[in-house]
Amino acid sequence: MPIRLDTKSPSFADAFATFLASKREASADVAAAVADIIAAVRARGDDAVIELSRTFDRVDLSGRIRVTEAEIDAALKEVPAETLDALKFAKARIEAHHSRQLPQDERYTDAAGVELGQRWTPVDAVGLYVPGGTAAYPSSVLMNAVPAKVAGVPRVAMVVPSPDGVIAPLVLAAARLAGVDEVYRVGGAQAVAALAYGTASIAPVDKIVGPGNAYVAAAKRQVFGKVGIDMIAGPSEVLILADANANPAWIAADLLAQAEHDTAAQSILVTDSGELADAVARAVEAQLTTLPRREIAQASWNDHGAIILVRDLEEALPLVDRVAPEHLEIHAEAAEELTARIRHAGAIFVGAYTPEAIGDYVGGTNHVLPTARSARFSSGLGVYDFMKRTSILKCTAASLNLIGPAAVRLAEVERLDAHGRSILIRTNAGPTDA
Amino acid sequence: MPIRLDTKSPSFADAFATFLASKREASADVAAAVADIIAAVRARGDDAVIELSRTFDRVDLSGRIRVTEAEIDAALKEVPAETLDALKFAKARIEAHHSRQLPQDERYTDAAGVELGQRWTPVDAVGLYVPGGTAAYPSSVLMNAVPAKVAGVPRVAMVVPSPDGVIAPLVLAAARLAGVDEVYRVGGAQAVAALAYGTASIAPVDKIVGPGNAYVAAAKRQVFGKVGIDMIAGPSEVLILADANANPAWIAADLLAQAEHDTAAQSILVTDSGELADAVARAVEAQLTTLPRREIAQASWNDHGAIILVRDLEEALPLVDRVAPEHLEIHAEAAEELTARIRHAGAIFVGAYTPEAIGDYVGGTNHVLPTARSARFSSGLGVYDFMKRTSILKCTAASLNLIGPAAVRLAEVERLDAHGRSILIRTNAGPTDA
């Protein structure tokens, strides 16, 4: 049974704090093993990649680390037309929304006559990690690769393990649709190391994104600095905020959609209606009986699920902000007003007709979102993640004369004389304009 | 003597690659020591902070971890009026420029009738690390705290070590001017741990920014995930791109302004004029003789400096992009055209009247910039670093009916049936609008 909390209980504050602090994942310490793998790939390149893939994926990659265009063509032919259409539809919607994120360059002259600006440029090369096996989701390929391409990244290189030689055709099809430029059948920490440091077969990239297991996460953490990385994603979560008029069956369906991901996933209902809470709990049990992934969903719901009863939805707002959920659904008459007042959430799904699953696939917004309370300080994946900003500064002799003295003074108090001199050598030269 | 490279030399490609790969910092492995410090602060809070400060800073912080407002008032009185005016001038210019970075929220309805949007909100609490001793720069306090305040962060908590009980009054003055809300006299990994996990005296924050030594960098890396962090900064660098008409004395002054920071700092001149190269080399030696920090600057210039001769500035562009310098100065007639064509640089200082030092203090742009080639994938500090984006999605019954089937199809091929069901339970209910 999921935990039930009630803000009217005198022990609520402690119980909620304990709930927030509860770990949903054993954090295996794989740092040392990963450091060895990275060192091996740096030292021996492709040979190490081939050896490690033989060990971990039971596959011989000699001479075939890269997936050929012909292999991708063949995979595309295996995908039914209806599925391909759905992927194309999703891709178009993701692309349309993300295109609106393209930031504007700026350049202006201020009152002192100093020109200031900022300019956005894409990263040259991005590596995209895609997990293998049952977690090889074509939708994830779209969600990671499309924003990179919208940003203008010229080279997107995808790595995906091929355990026992198998890569899901759908993943290759999604890569082709999303404009991925290169695909390598390598996974694990060795794939991250190859992307970061390069091998004879895999040219190094500048930034690595995408989800993965504990080894992949540890490898990303270790190569951070040498290359950029995206967030380290944890298990997924949803919080549904609902009033008494909400539909319990719909809420139950959404809680289970979250729970079926992973036994470590988390589904939370926050409501001011005890009746709704009970009805949702019953509906979850009823819907579970026919769910193919019921064992996973049941374990997630029993171990990490929660129903939190509040006096009114006003009281719920600070609780939601403390959870800072990856996904927040609002099923309430005042959905818009509540949306406006939430401060921390990766994504908000407004109103009962917006199940979170629509955002996983075709809503157009990104499904790579901050987990484990990190929406307090980070954002979902976007075009910004594949661009960087260069600041621009331009003085004339006159404007340097105007603002220079304050800089000289600050250089002096920081005892950085050469800083001051680099300004004085110009301003002492007199106010001739450049 | 700095290294001299010439693109006309047959060994240039190898020599340039070696130059790019050269490490300027011994990376001390302090990870284990830092992990112990973090564990101690998590377990014993203020007691551990006090013990560690006694050991590392030779100071007793019992009952006085926080710097009081009266102490900050007293520090302000110690700062000469001219210096305070310079700090205020710098703060106003940084604030004015960064205010233009505030991102716009967006909400729109697309052709399918789906409402999409993104909303930016500030982080609730930010921790700002400020190094102690001679590297306690008031300008760094402004550069880190002002963007946080422009972003709307309600709580900015600063930590600064007080070795032997001393904190520079200027640093406290800058904190007051910048609107820092709390100051703690704690440094090192223990300060980072306290900010990340909280103690009785220091409430936890959501994101930690600011420069520091190897211990601070390792601590930031280890608490990443629990809180957000900014980049891990390396030693500073400048690349000056100059044509034959550039002023060698000005260039020498700017190369030395960089070199005086740190023996690990790097100053690079790239020019198409052998005469200018020689004149700059002579000017550096001449200016060094009277520089207070000449030992540091000389070591930096000799060990890490470089003069690279190119056939023409066109040939320089890909070299500059490979260096991806933190600071790029362009002293050339074609400065604007060259600026437009550079892809990777933290900041560009356009034209001879824009010494890099002006950007360190009063230009208005941020001086916290990506080092060690990381401008390939990351940006200088800005308002964005203190905000996060929540995506918004809102369907009606009609728009869910329109886009739902493709999502159901994709859920099916990903074998996430509960995802598909959460859409079908609504669309099967018929096209009644919400």
TrEMBL record, chains A, B:
<feature type="binding site">
    <location>
        <position position="129"/>
    </location>
    <ligand>
        <name>NAD(+)</name>
    </ligand>
</feature>
<keyword id="KW-0368">Histidine biosynthesis</keyword>
<dbReference type="GO" id="GO:0005829">
    <property type="term" value="C:cytosol"/>
</dbReference>
<protein>
    <recommendedName>
        <fullName>Histidinol dehydrogenase</fullName>
        <ecNumber>1.1.1.23</ecNumber>
    </recommendedName>
</protein>
<dbReference type="InterPro" id="IPR022695">
    <property type="entry name" value="Histidinol_DH_monofunct"/>
</dbReference>
<keyword id="KW-0560">Oxidoreductase</keyword>
<feature type="active site" description="Proton acceptor">
    <location>
        <position position="326"/>
    </location>
</feature>
<keyword id="KW-0479">Metal-binding</keyword>
<dbReference type="InterPro" id="IPR016161">
    <property type="entry name" value="Ald_DH/histidinol_DH"/>
</dbReference>
<keyword id="KW-0520">NAD</keyword>
<dbReference type="GO" id="GO:0004399">
    <property type="term" value="F:histidinol dehydrogenase activity"/>
</dbReference>
<feature type="binding site">
    <location>
        <position position="360"/>
    </location>
    <ligand>
        <name>Zn(2+)</name>
    </ligand>
</feature>
<feature type="binding site">
    <location>
        <position position="419"/>
    </location>
    <ligand>
        <name>Zn(2+)</name>
    </ligand>
</feature>
<feature type="binding site">
    <location>
        <position position="190"/>
    </location>
    <ligand>
        <name>NAD(+)</name>
    </ligand>
</feature>
<dbReference type="InterPro" id="IPR012131">
    <property type="entry name" value="Hstdl_DH"/>
</dbReference>
<comment type="pathway">
    <text>Amino-acid biosynthesis; L-histidine biosynthesis; L-histidine from 5-phospho-alpha-D-ribose 1-diphosphate: step 9/9.</text>
</comment>
<dbReference type="GO" id="GO:0051287">
    <property type="term" value="F:NAD binding"/>
</dbReference>
<feature type="binding site">
    <location>
        <position position="258"/>
    </location>
    <ligand>
        <name>Zn(2+)</name>
    </ligand>
</feature>
<feature type="binding site">
    <location>
        <position position="414"/>
    </location>
    <ligand>
        <name>substrate</name>
    </ligand>
</feature>
<feature type="binding site">
    <location>
        <position position="360"/>
    </location>
    <ligand>
        <name>substrate</name>
    </ligand>
</feature>
<keyword id="KW-0028">Amino-acid biosynthesis</keyword>
<dbReference type="Pfam" id="PF00815">
    <property type="entry name" value="Histidinol_dh"/>
</dbReference>
<feature type="active site" description="Proton acceptor">
    <location>
        <position position="327"/>
    </location>
</feature>
<comment type="function">
    <text>Catalyzes the sequential NAD-dependent oxidations of L-histidinol to L-histidinaldehyde and then to L-histidine.</text>
</comment>
<feature type="binding site">
    <location>
        <position position="327"/>
    </location>
    <ligand>
        <name>substrate</name>
    </ligand>
</feature>
<feature type="binding site">
    <location>
        <position position="261"/>
    </location>
    <ligand>
        <name>substrate</name>
    </ligand>
</feature>
<comment type="similarity">
    <text>Belongs to the histidinol dehydrogenase family.</text>
</comment>
<dbReference type="GO" id="GO:0000105">
    <property type="term" value="P:L-histidine biosynthetic process"/>
</dbReference>
<feature type="binding site">
    <location>
        <position position="213"/>
    </location>
    <ligand>
        <name>NAD(+)</name>
    </ligand>
</feature>
<feature type="binding site">
    <location>
        <position position="261"/>
    </location>
    <ligand>
        <name>Zn(2+)</name>
    </ligand>
</feature>
<feature type="binding site">
    <location>
        <position position="419"/>
    </location>
    <ligand>
        <name>substrate</name>
    </ligand>
</feature>
<dbReference type="InterPro" id="IPR001692">
    <property type="entry name" value="Histidinol_DH_CS"/>
</dbReference>
<dbReference type="GO" id="GO:0008270">
    <property type="term" value="F:zinc ion binding"/>
</dbReference>
<keyword id="KW-0862">Zinc</keyword>
<feature type="binding site">
    <location>
        <position position="236"/>
    </location>
    <ligand>
        <name>substrate</name>
    </ligand>
</feature>
<feature type="binding site">
    <location>
        <position position="258"/>
    </location>
    <ligand>
        <name>substrate</name>
    </ligand>
</feature>
